[in-house]
Amino acid sequence: MLGSRFALLIGSSRFDNPGLQQLRSPARDVGELAEVLADPDIGEFEVTTKTDQEHHQMMRSIETFFRARGRDDLLLLHISSHGLKADHGDLYFAARDTDRELLDSTGVPAAFLQKQMNRCRAKSIVLLLDCCYSGAFFLGVKGDSFVHVNDELSGYGRVVLTATSRTEYAWEGDNLSELDPEPSHFTGAVIEGLRTGDADLNRDGKVGAQELYEYVYENVRAKNKMQSPQMWNALEYQVIVARSPHSAGPAPGPVLPGMESAATLAPIVPDASEEKEVDTPALDPAHRDAAVAQLKRALPDPVRRIEVFDLVDLAVTELIGNSTQDRRPVIGPVFVENIRGYRADSDKLLHLLATGAFHDDGSHDALWVRAIERLSRLRDGNLQSFNDELDRLRLFPALLAAWGIGVAAVLGRREELIARILIQPSFRPPFGNRGRQAPAVYLNPLLVIYGDSINGVCHAENGAKYYYPQSHFIRDEMREPFRLIEPDDSAYAEACYRFEFLASMIAMDSEISPYVNPWSGEFLLDSNWGYDENGLAADVHQEIKESWPLLRGGAFGANPERAEKAFQALIEFRSKNPRWW
Distance between CA 379 and CA 455 in Å, rounded? Predict the structure, then answer.
């Protein structure tokens, strides 16, 4: 039996307490969201709106909303207000009469809302919290009374979307005029995604809760990198928030259910048989994007640390499975086929690494190092016959992974990670009597992409050759995984040049002559290197001191004098090789 669809939208803009800033967005948030949700062609909800209530009125509205609901009903509650954290860490929602000094008696506790959700008979609940510190709601969500009692969660389609993490502010729109306020970034993205249908990511004519979160996250982050929407769910089936005009198949039926059973829907988690399939040269972008969205949700949550590890490690395993000598031979005229094949096979992993390393706070550094270490083992000495150029290319996935993590570290202002990934996973070359090498040495692009074959896949439109085709090719091939992280092409390119520069310094410190060589790349060009003590080289030189992130990460033996020596060696190399610039 199909249930009914109910929505309660609560907005608080005006506050009696002078310590609480008046808000402009909630009124617009409530009005526009109500219009979209009530639209029979989109949400088909029975919508109730409440604005500027006192705390006892707000609590009454919430309790009334969750009472007397049927098991198959879909409930959507949206709260737009101030989020206030007490000294003991509890979250409260501000009402018109809330006193910041008396939150227990004048605020609306998040714990109260959790209790009403737990008592409600409806199996499908969507909660949208657009307020500062809304991520703190998850502290209560993860309590024993909410998560760990399987009987309570059994069959649930419960979803909580918050505008921010536990420490961030929720941003109102850029236009803060009193007469024409904009919706907040978070609610504005919800409204836009539902109204246009753009949140229907798989274009099946329906917007699921998970699709809505993924759309909102990317939309908000594109406008403001300081705000990161979060999601928690206990989904055993899809919860359909709205219908959209997009559909690859027949138009959606006239009835939009409160929830659909698992029997009529594809599983939320990809089928295990899809995970085992390793013979496909290019992964489905939808599968890739779903993995990235899952990573974004799990990354900041210490409870889901194993989930993050499994996501990345499984992607590495898939890539290794695709990189057999049968599929990527090391003999014959297959250079172009191999290099493009390695890149296609690496696609999902590169998106995970770029996203993960950029958003990580250092908690998962060992995972990023492990990825490079495992990929480096693709090149071994167990070959009967081989082409040296193709054998070296077996390290291309490891090079792409290091590039992705390194550029993400530059963009995320966490360059100590570069030192870890380019020093720690040492590797012994499969041929000769050389000792173990650091990744800064054996992943040098000129060694991995060896010879002139690169000109077959990387050349200017007029047929001319680039000065540094390896550098140019990798930068172009890695652009797509960073498209949402850094939309500006110039900023992305500058991050690549800086990564190459820092990697080259570490390489100059990691080997002894005559083997010492930098990652000769486009950072060496005058336009990127800089002129007259201005530009990239000068900036890096000024940073060499004990507090430099690369030194903190373990590069140069944490010794500024060694870093200075490597810097001067790089300058000397450049001066002795003018043909390269």
Answer: 23
CB burial of 110-131 (b: ≥16 within 10 Å; e: otherwise) equals bebbbbbbeebebbbbbbbbbb
**Tokens representing 372?**
């490079």
Please, are residues 312 and 356 in contact by the beta-carbon 8 Å criterion? yes
Q: Looking at residue 529, what DSSP letter applies?
A: H
Helix, strand or coil for residue 189?
helix
Contacts of residue 176, defined as CB under 8 A and 6 or more positions apart, other chains included, come to 24, 182
Calpha distance 498→536 (Å, rounded):
7
Q: Count Cβ atoms within 10 A of the Cβ of residue 513 and give its class: 0-12 exposed, 13-18 middle, 19 or more buried.
A: exposed
Q: Does residue 418 share a domain with residue 346?
A: yes
In a domain, 507, yes or no: no
Tokens found for residue 425: 């996973």
Contacts of 304 (CB under 8 A, 6+ apart): 297, 298
The DSSP annotation for 249-295 comes to: SSPPPS---S---GGGS--SSPPHHHHH----SS--HHHHHHHHHHH
Contacts of 107 (CB under 8 A, 6+ apart): 55, 84, 92, 93, 94, 95, 98
Contact 188, 233 (CB under 8 A): no
Residue 378 CA to residue 383 CA, distance in Å, equals 12
Structure tokens at 1: 């039996």
Q: Is 502 part of a structural domain of the chain?
A: no
pLDDT averaged per 10 residues in sequence order, the chain, 581 residues: 85 90 85 94 94 96 92 92 78 92 92 89 89 56 29 54 58 39 77 93 86 88 71 72 69 45 31 36 63 84 80 91 89 92 94 95 92 89 73 94 97 95 77 74 93 82 80 94 93 97 93 73 92 90 95 94 94 78 40
- CA–CA gap between residue 282 and residue 82 (Å, rounded): 46
Q: Of 206, 208, 209, which is closest to residue 252 (Cα–Cα)?
A: 206
Same-domain status, 235 and 373: no
Pair 179, 70 in one domain: yes
CA angle 213/160/91 to nearest 5° reads 125
CATH of the domain at 249: 3.40.50.1460
Q: Name the 3-class secondary structure at 232.
A: strand
Which pairing describes strands 5-11 and 46-51: parallel, antiparallel, or unpaired? parallel
Sign of the dihedral through C-alpha 467, 473, 478, 479 = positive
C-alpha 267: how far from its chain's center?
22
